[in-house]
User: Fold this.
Amino acid sequence: MVAGEEKRMRFHKGDRVRISQLGLTKFLYPKRLDRRGIIVGPGLEYPHTIRVKWDGFKDTDALSEEFVELISEPARSLRCAGEGRER
Assistant:
């Protein structure tokens, strides 16, 4: 990555994901086929990698963003903007 170049991700922190069709062809372990998780951030070494915390596991996996697909949009908190807060 060139200095000053922003790393662009298709996914954002907090997005819910599952293994994509391409990911299914790459993973040989049946235990991973129905995994769902949450994006916790970008991968640390390579561009276009993400870190995912799978449901039921405490550690994260770093993998290519091509191996996962979005399940649903994350619930955005309105508290940051001060809206929706009861007083």
